[in-house]
Amino acid sequence: MDMLSFDVSEYLIVKYVLLGLLLVGVLIGLRKGLHLIQLKPTTRERIDRSLPLVEALMGLIFIVLAAHSIFQNQPTYFMVLFSAILVILVWSFWFAIQDFVSGLILKWEDTYTVGDLLTVESETGRVIRVGYRSLMIETADGQRIKFPYSHLTRTQVHKLDADEVVWAHTFQMAVPLMDAPEVMMKRIILAATNVVWSAVNRVPQVVFQGVQNGVQLFEITVYVLDPNRRSTIESRIRESLGNT
Question: Per residue in 181-204, pLDDT tens?
Answer without folding.
Answer: 899 999 999 998 888 778 777 789
